[in-house]
């Protein structure tokens, strides 16, 4: 079981948090902070597993994380998950984000956290891995987005236009904080079918 | 209308959307909180509007704020509103918000039930999907109960997208509503074989989660998972299954044996590290479960260790970490294999990655030996010095102590060294483990007598330097050590060089800053020291020194009397008064030393931590009654005013000064013995030599400890443990030399030291402890009860899921779903009385999706048919459960408002599951049984379990629909093939003391007389049987084979050949070829010529065997046949490779064309009556075996099934792959067996009978 999925940046600012068990908002923030502290002090070239996320209960829990440019992707899992499998799942997740957002960068996650949630929902459900095939995930996400667009129809157009105008005025919209570098090599990890 | 919408959305344009909110927050870095609170106010306004779009936008923003840590539960109702929007866009926003912030305590959740149900049955798959996803996050027991049935329906949805989500969410439903597990399980199991890989994967996922918590309930699924494992190519699924097997194998060692081979193959073949790693892990689990340590598995261990070494050596830190993690699992059972990689592990200790260092530390635990302990600990001490973080340093500290103290200090040869290590550890600042060090010091000092003098010296030094420890109260963790130091100095004060000085140190004012419990020990032990000092000075003429000491106490103790700590205060005032009294006596020149030391006489034995708990209350003991009448005279009240506070029972004076009246002593001893004999609580010491004599009055009872003087007892100043390393080396050298000398003289040492002398290289045993170590074992009450400390958390949600599913599945003692176990289906609650029967149900569930699959309907019909049939046949008991299910609504309409066809459908246990479940033993018994593990070898149950079990589950359905039974048959024969795999002839002859098989017979009621397959419950178990016979063998390879008919294709048989590599070389490029005859042909891949061989799809490492299957097509099956063939292969040894070949003859017997097929007595009778069959008969003389064995053999070797058995007469049936019926009537009397047979093909019959005769002539 996956207990929680957290994404935060190099400064510990949460970009996405998904807890599959209920915690109060305060505890959640505490968990995020603690996890950030644990993860951020680790060197780049050490292993991606970490024992002892103390706040999430259950002694056999592990933190499995990956660091891409400005973002940390952290999965808190119990012993029923395969460590390398989860690492690979994170890779699939990031690659999927990359496809869905076209060269994903931190800003995409900042402004479209709802979309990230929707993508995640196609991969992991209630703490269990639902789908590991990227194409399948993208197909389902696209189909749902299409539905959304068709529902908005003509009525949605003005809103989109305004949104586009607003975005045009964005001085601080650098497109170069790329998560990029997703081709970080994981030796011999299988791509799941 | 359209205008209104457009207008609405134009209004909306100027609302903040999520992006604006985020942007705003980013622009207000300084006053973020303030900005957000204004935003929340805006959101509250928006939520008040009617426009759902505005609301959804607001909820979307709230979801974001929730992530930032703002409580948004106040908007729960609005979230529900957005969830119920008809538009997918908004619905999704609503469900997302709900999944982020709803939980069991959210009260509006109960409003969502209907909405969710509606969404679940929405025609739009994404509405359903979104609802399922949301529900998975916030499902509550109520929701689970109300929606379980709807979700179960979705498990059979036409869209795989929905199916997989429905399957997955079932796990959450089970957790919240455990009652749903049994009804839903059959369908869940069905999904394991879903055509869609995603659904299959989801089902595997769910079952793995379930099985992880309660593995024993899922053992029966092992064959199915095994099949999946060998067929699946999805690594994710494979990993899950392999992990699951890891959890199952401790429960069933036979399973492990079966797994080893395919897992080994996977390890060899896979390129995926994750898969390889999990395989290795499971192999390790298997090896642990097979702790019998079978020699043929050492190869597997080696393989694992090798692979792990590769992982550990990898530059990827992740693999290194996992490698070490898995290695530590091997360590527990096969420490030897790991020890050979010590170099590598020590290397990992220097890794820059802390996680890796910690893992390596774990492994060190098993690496140590007497030889290298000091070295390793020295290395760790270096790490302790260098360690940057306290967590890691503390970890190191505990590891050092763990390593040293493991298995009763097994590896410590020099306790002085250990004490000095402990003392060195006390220098660690800010450690949390002072307590741990203290308990080690106490333990060693108490249990290793030889070390006491040294320990006392060291502890005295610690007390002297106590300011070092207490200098900073922040790090009070370490001051716990003083507790131990003070106690040791006090208790063993006779070893003290200068008790006066220590006493002085213990009474320094600074001590008052220590924690109370430590001060208390200080005070108490100061008194002990005082006694020692008095005794020391008694003999001497000058009483000055003794009086000075008394004075010191009288001066210093008042400090403690003022202590706020009650314990300290009490002890101090008591002792103060005592000392004052003594002072008076001293002034009168009265000798008091003896009396004072009597206060602290007696030896303290270590008692096992649980000893007290384990003392059983003897029968007839009344704990409230007086054990002895209250003592009339108290022996020593006047002279021991302090007894109340004495930690140990004061018993008698110190043995060294036995001037005390001998008579008095003897009297007391007698009285005490008496008392002890009567006292049920007194822990009697066993005659073990290691026990300390509690009532030993004389010196002679204290075991005299030989101290090897080659080690100087006194190390000046603070000890450096390093010194011991050198000393130890020198000592060993010396010892070695000595031993050599002694060996020449053939002289033995007196003290049993080094009984074993090896002149060869220094081995473990050679290293004798530096001193004769007498480790006092911990005491336990004699008749201690074995404890099973159940630490299980009563709140564990998984506990509720510990539901026996085998009952549901297995045919033998099938407990069908009780009525209370049906999933609730929604009904109109307003309707108090329903019209009974199914129609009423349908009416009462108007919103039930009408698209119930046609399959279900059919099944329903089947049920009805069954009922009708049953009543005809009057099988009351059997009928019962199904009948109940059907009739229930009529009987209890008011009480149980929740019945529908759905539940009826569920209530019918699927025949396939039942067959497989009871097949488990059968399937498992196939593994090669090691000659050593007798108890494991379960007898092969009567063959063809399928008919018997399916009979139990649904006796009539099969009679009605023989087609249903057929696929099952195939499955079964597959299992059987596996089963027979590698059962060697040897085993066949093996002893017959086997466990009885309970499962093959459910003896049914009187009316039902078809006893299955010739075995009855009370009869003795069958010896294991195998159909594999030798094909060919040479020095490299052995082949055994079995032939099975293929039911699906009347012209095919499958030949399973097990290749076993007998050599030490690698066998590869194996090619299997057969010279076809006109009648029988080997099926070759398309494009291959008629003379080409088939490549065997694997290679064989030394000692490994594997199975390959070849399909042959046959035209006529009435005659047996032999085919010549050749196997060619390459033998590859280290430096050469040679081509080899082996000729063989494949013997197709007529039996191999027969397939076990169940037949029921009425059908059988009809068949015989039809008159189409030709008859023949056979007599066997001198068959000396029980009738049921005979039947079992026929069933097993010749693929028959028993139709009916009455006493010593049985009718049997089988069918050929081409549909010939073969009927046998077997009778036995006085070692003579007569078989009357009928078949529609006389030559086939003749040949089968000949083969049966052959079988029995062999045994």
TrEMBL record, chain A:
<keyword id="KW-0653">Protein transport</keyword>
<dbReference type="InterPro" id="IPR000804">
    <property type="entry name" value="Clathrin_sm-chain_CS"/>
</dbReference>
<dbReference type="GO" id="GO:0006886">
    <property type="term" value="P:intracellular protein transport"/>
</dbReference>
<dbReference type="InterPro" id="IPR027155">
    <property type="entry name" value="APS3"/>
</dbReference>
<comment type="similarity">
    <text>Belongs to the adaptor complexes small subunit family.</text>
</comment>
<dbReference type="InterPro" id="IPR022775">
    <property type="entry name" value="AP_mu_sigma_su"/>
</dbReference>
<dbReference type="GO" id="GO:0005794">
    <property type="term" value="C:Golgi apparatus"/>
</dbReference>
<dbReference type="Pfam" id="PF01217">
    <property type="entry name" value="Clat_adaptor_s"/>
</dbReference>
<keyword id="KW-0968">Cytoplasmic vesicle</keyword>
<dbReference type="GO" id="GO:0006896">
    <property type="term" value="P:Golgi to vacuole transport"/>
</dbReference>
<comment type="function">
    <text>Part of the AP-3 complex, an adaptor-related complex which is not clathrin-associated. The complex is associated with the Golgi region as well as more peripheral structures. It facilitates the budding of vesicles from the Golgi membrane and may be directly involved in trafficking to lysosomes. In concert with the BLOC-1 complex, AP-3 is required to target cargos into vesicles assembled at cell bodies for delivery into neurites and nerve terminals.</text>
</comment>
<feature type="domain" description="AP complex mu/sigma subunit">
    <location>
        <begin position="1"/>
        <end position="147"/>
    </location>
</feature>
<dbReference type="GO" id="GO:0030123">
    <property type="term" value="C:AP-3 adaptor complex"/>
</dbReference>
<keyword id="KW-0472">Membrane</keyword>
<keyword id="KW-0333">Golgi apparatus</keyword>
<keyword id="KW-0813">Transport</keyword>
<dbReference type="GO" id="GO:0030659">
    <property type="term" value="C:cytoplasmic vesicle membrane"/>
</dbReference>
<dbReference type="InterPro" id="IPR011012">
    <property type="entry name" value="Longin-like_dom_sf"/>
</dbReference>
<protein>
    <recommendedName>
        <fullName>AP complex mu/sigma subunit domain-containing protein</fullName>
    </recommendedName>
</protein>
<dbReference type="InterPro" id="IPR016635">
    <property type="entry name" value="AP_complex_ssu"/>
</dbReference>
């Amino acid at each position: 079981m996956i207990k929680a999925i957290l994404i935060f940046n190099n400064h510990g600012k949460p970009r996405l948090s998904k807890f599959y068990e209920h915690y109060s908002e305060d505890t959640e923030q505490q968990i995020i902070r603690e996890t950030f502290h644990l993860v951020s002090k680790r060197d780049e070239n050490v292993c991606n597993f970490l024992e002892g996320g103390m706040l999430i209960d259950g002694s056999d829990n592990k933190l499995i994380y990956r660091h891409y440019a400005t973002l940390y992707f952290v999965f808190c899992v119990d012993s029923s998950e395969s460590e390398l499998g989860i690492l690979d799942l994170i890779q699939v997740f990031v690659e999927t984000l990359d496809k869905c957002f076209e060269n994903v960068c931190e800003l995409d996650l900042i402004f479209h956290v709802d979309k990230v949630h929707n993508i995640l929902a196609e991969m992991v459900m209630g703490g269990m891995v639902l789908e590991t095939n990227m194409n399948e995930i993208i197909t389902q996400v696209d189909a749902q987005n299409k539905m959304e667009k068709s529902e908005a129809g003509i009525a949605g157009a003005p809103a989109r236009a305004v949104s586009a105008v607003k975005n045009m005025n964005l001085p601080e919209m650098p497109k170069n904080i790329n998560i990029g570098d997703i081709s970080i090599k994981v030796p011999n990890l299988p791509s799941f079918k | 209308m359209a205008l209104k919408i457009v207008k609405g959305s134009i209004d909306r344009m100027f609302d903040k959307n999520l992006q604006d909110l985020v942007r705003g927050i980013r622009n207000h870095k300084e006053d973020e909180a303030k900005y957000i609170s204004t935003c929340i106010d805006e959101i509250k306004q928006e939520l008040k509007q009617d426009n759902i779009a505005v609301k959804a936008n607001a909820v979307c923003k709230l979801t974001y704020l929730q992530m930032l840590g703002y409580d948004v539960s106040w908007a729960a109702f609005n979230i529900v509103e957005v969830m119920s929007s008809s538009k997918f866009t908004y619905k999704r926003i609503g469900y997302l918000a709900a999944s982020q912030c709803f939980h069991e305590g959210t009260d509006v959740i109960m409003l969502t039930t209907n909405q969710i149900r509606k969404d679940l049955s929405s025609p739009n798959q994404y509405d359903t999907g979104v609802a399922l996803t949301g529900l998975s996050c916030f499902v509550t027991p109520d929701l689970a109960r109300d929606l379980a049935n709807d979700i179960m329906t979705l498990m059979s949805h036409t869209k795989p997208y929905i199916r997989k989500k429905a399957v997955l969410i079932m796990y959450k439903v089970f957790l919240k509503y455990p009652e749903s597990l049994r009804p839903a399980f059959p369908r869940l199991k069905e999904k394991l074989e879903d055509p869609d890989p995603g659904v299959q994967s989801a089902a595997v996922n769910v079952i793995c989660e379930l099985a992880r918590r309660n593995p024993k309930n899922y053992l029966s699924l092992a064959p199915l998972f095994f099949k999946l494992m060998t067929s699946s190519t999805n690594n994710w699924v494979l990993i899950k299954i392999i992990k699951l097997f890891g959890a199952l194998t401790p429960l069933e060692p036979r399973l492990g044996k079966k797994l080893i081979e395919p897992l080994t193959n996977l390890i060899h073949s896979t390129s995926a590290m994750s898969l390889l790693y999990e395989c290795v892990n499971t192999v390790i689990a298997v090896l642990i479960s097979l702790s019998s340590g079978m020699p043929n598995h050492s190869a597997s261990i080696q393989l694992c260790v090798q692979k792990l070494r590769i992982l550990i050596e990898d530059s990827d830190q992740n693999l290194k970490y996992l490698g070490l993690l898995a290695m530590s699992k091997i360590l527990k059972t096969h420490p030897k294999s790991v020890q050979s990689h010590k170099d590598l592990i020590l290397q990992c200790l220097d890794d820059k990655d802390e996680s890796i260092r910690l893992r390596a530390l774990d492994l060190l635990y098993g690496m140590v030996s007497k030889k290298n302990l000091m070295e390793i600990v020295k290395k760790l001490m270096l790490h302790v010095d260098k360690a940057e973080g306290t967590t890691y340093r503390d970890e190191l500290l505990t590891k050092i102590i763990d390593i040293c103290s493991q298995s009763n200090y097994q590896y410590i040869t020099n306790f002085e060294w250990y004490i000095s290590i402990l003392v060195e550890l006390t220098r660690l600042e800010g450690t949390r483990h002072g307590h741990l060090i203290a308990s080690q010091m106490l333990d060693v000092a108490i249990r290793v007598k030889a070390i006491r003098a040294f320990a006392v010296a060291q502890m005295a030094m610690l007390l002297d330097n106590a300011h070092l420890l207490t200098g900073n109260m922040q790090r009070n963790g370490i001051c716990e050590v003083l507790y131990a130091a003070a106690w040791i100095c006090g208790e063993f004060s006779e070893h003290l060089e200068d008790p006066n000085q220590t006493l002085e140190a213990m009474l320094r004012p600074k001590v008052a800053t220590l924690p109370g419990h430590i001060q208390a020990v200080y005070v108490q032990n100061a008194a002990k020291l005082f006694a020692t000092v008095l005794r020391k000075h008694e003999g001497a003429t000058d009483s000055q020194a003794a009086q000075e000491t008394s004075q010191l106490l009288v001066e210093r103790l008042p400090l403690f009397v003022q202590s706020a700590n009650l314990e300290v205060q009490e002890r101090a005032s008591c002792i103060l008064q005592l000392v004052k009294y003594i002072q008076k006596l001293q002034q009168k020149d009265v000798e008091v030393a003896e009396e004072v030391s009597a206060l602290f006489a007696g030896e303290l034995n270590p008692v096992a931590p649980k000893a007290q708990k384990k003392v059983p209350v003897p029968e007839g003991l009344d704990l409230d009654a007086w054990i002895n009448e209250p003592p009339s005279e108290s022996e020593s009240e006047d002279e021991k005013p302090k007894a109340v506070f004495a930690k140990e029972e004061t018993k008698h004076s110190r043995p060294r000064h036995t001037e005390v009246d001998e008579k008095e002593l003897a009297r007391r001893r007698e009285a005490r013995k008496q008392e002890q004999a009567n006292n049920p609580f007194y822990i009697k010491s066993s005659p073990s030599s290691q026990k300390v004599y509690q009532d030993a009055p004389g010196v002679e009872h204290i075991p005299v400890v030989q101290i090897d003087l080659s080690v100087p007892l006194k190390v000046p100043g603070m000890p450096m443990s390093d010194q011991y390393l050198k000393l130890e080396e020198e000592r060993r050298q010396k010892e070695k030399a000595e031993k050599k000398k002694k060996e020449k003289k053939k002289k033995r040492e007196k003290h049993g030291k080094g009984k074993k002398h090896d002149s060869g290289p220094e081995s473990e045993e050679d290293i004798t402890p530096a001193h004769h170590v007498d480790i006092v074992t911990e005491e336990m009450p004699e008749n201690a009860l074995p404890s099973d400390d159940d630490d299980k958390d009563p709140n564990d949600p998984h506990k509720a899921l510990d539901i026996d599913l085998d009952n549901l599945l297995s045919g033998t003692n099938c407990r069908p779903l009780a009525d209370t176990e049906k999933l609730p289906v929604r009904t109109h609650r307003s309707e108090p009385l329903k019209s009974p029967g199914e129609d009423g149900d349908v009416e009462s569930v108007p919103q039930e999706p009408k698209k119930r699959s046609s399959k279900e309907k059919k099944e329903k019909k089947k049920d009805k048919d069954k009922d009708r049939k049953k009543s005809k046949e009057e099988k009351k008991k059997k009928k019962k459960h199904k009948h109940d299910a059907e009739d229930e609504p009529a009987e209890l309409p008011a009480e149980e408002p929740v019945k529908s066809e759905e539940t009826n459908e569920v209530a019918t246990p699927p025949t396939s599951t039942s067959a497989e479940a009871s097949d488990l033993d059968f399937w498992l018994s196939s593994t090669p049984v090691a000659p050593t593990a007798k108890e494991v070898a379960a007898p092969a149950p009567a063959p063809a379990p399928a008919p018997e079990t399916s009979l139990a589950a649904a006796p009539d359905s099969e009679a009605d629909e023989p087609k249903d039974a057929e696929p099952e048959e195939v499955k079964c024969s597959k299992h059987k093939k596996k089963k027979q795999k590698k059962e060697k002839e040897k085993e066949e002859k093996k002893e017959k003391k086997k466990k009885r098989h309970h499962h093959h017979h459910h003896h049914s009621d009187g009316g039902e007389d078809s006893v299955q397959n010739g075995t009855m419950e009370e009869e003795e178990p069958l010896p294991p049987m195998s159909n594999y016979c030798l094909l060919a063998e040479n020095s490299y390879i052995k082949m055994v084979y079995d032939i099975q008919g293929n039911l699906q294709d009347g012209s095919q048989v499958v030949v399973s050949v097990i290749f076993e590599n007998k050599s030490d070389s690698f066998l590869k490029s194996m090619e299997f070829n057969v010279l076809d005859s006109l009648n029988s042909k080997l099926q070759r891949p398309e494009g291959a010529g008629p003379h080409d061989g088939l490549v065997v799809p694997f290679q064989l490492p030394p000692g490994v065997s594997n199975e390959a299957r070849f399909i042959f097509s046959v035209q006529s099956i009435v005659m047996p046949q032999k085919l010549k063939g050749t196997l060619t292969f390459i033998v590859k040894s280290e430096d050469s490779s040679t081509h080899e070949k082996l000729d063989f003859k494949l013997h197709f017997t007529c039996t191999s064309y027969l397939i076990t097929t169940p037949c029921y007595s009425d059908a059988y009778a009809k068949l015989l009556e039809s008159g189409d069959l030709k008859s023949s008969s056979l007599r066997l003389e001198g068959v000396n075996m029980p009738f049921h064995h005979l039947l079992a053999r026929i069933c097993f070797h010749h693929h028959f099934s028993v139709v009916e058995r009455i006493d010593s007469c049985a009718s049997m049936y089988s069918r050929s792959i081409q549909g010939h019926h073969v009927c046998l009537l077997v009778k036995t009397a006085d070692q003579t067996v007569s078989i009357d047979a009928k078949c529609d093909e006389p030559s086939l019959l003749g040949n089968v009978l000949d083969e049966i005769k052959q079988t029995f002539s062999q045994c």
